[in-house]
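note to self: dont lose this again. the chain is below, predicted strucutre after it. 385 aa total, dont forget to put it in the shared folder this time
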Amino acid sequence: MSLKVIVVGAGLAGLNAAQILRSNGCEVTLLEEQSRIGGRVATEMIDGYRCDHGFQVINPAYPELRRTGLVEKLQIHSLSKGFEIFIDEKLVMVGDPRKGLGYLVGDLSSRTGTLSEKLNFLRYLASKAQDQSFGIAMSQSGDFYQKIIKRFLQGVLLINPDEVSSLMAHELLRWFIRGNPGVPHLGVQALPNLLGEGLDIRTESRVRKIKSGEVQTSEEKLSADVVLIATNEVSAASLLGQPAPSMNKSVTWYHSVPAGEIKSNHLRLDPTNTFVNSVAISNVAPSYAPAGRTLISTTALDVIHSTEVLARVGALWRVNPKSLEYVQHFEIAQSLPKHLPGKPLISPSRLSENVYIAGDHRATPSQQGALLSGRLAAEAIIADL
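---
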């Protein structure tokens, strides 16, 4: 008789765990509260535009993603491996010189920091990180950190990078350097859709209570040998009767302009810190906009009045705000878990007898962390039972 497992939550962690458990002969059922799978990894089609829920890119170098065998199927359109920022009203490009010698001008410019500050940052990447705040770890990287790295990471972590764990930031930065992130041809929703193929998934199934060997939904009571909680951190805490943790939040706006008005395919950082980043995403992946239009994705850490959004997006891209056509915006209250100093890179999967947990809050706040946590939870279940 095969092991019966109920997975609560069909985000990346739950889907990856379910696939591994199924491949090892387990009978797996996923319960998902929403009408779709993927959790925070979602895409909507709006009037011919492909709008991801928040600024999200997929790094094909993530080892856990490569384990799934899905990289080629995603058809990833890679972002340019650098970014743009206005410093003293001059547009500066900073990036990986291995991908383009044109980045060397900005990389070596005194506008982006001193040579010693940049060497100190490279030493940090090459050395073993310490368990301390990233802000302290970057204390010797001065303006290069404050003007460049900090602003870039704000858009990745959706929090002031000074506060986060240096261990976690070190891990993510190294993966960014190794990989070439981008967006799938069909939007980021393509990843959970592929991960979910062949699985028994029950959407719109809200779980109200969990105990060893039993799950109570809004409609029925289900029994299982094992229950794996693979929801986001807030939902997991609620199911476990724990206080709700604070999570990072964000807002992403989508606007369009006539094609050709913006030619850049680079991520652009905002020197005013109104936004954490903006990108003409359809210049990276043409499938994100209908013919004749360019789709712009712009993200901030908090809600901004629509009038200010238009003015600042126009200023950031040097276009007339009147030419910006509003498409959609997403306010995401639970964008990413906080990963502060003192938190390990991997937390245990087993909570109690027959109850396990997975999610990016149990590893690093990333797709890599979610997939890794799902795999480790599945392997722990198999090994224990």
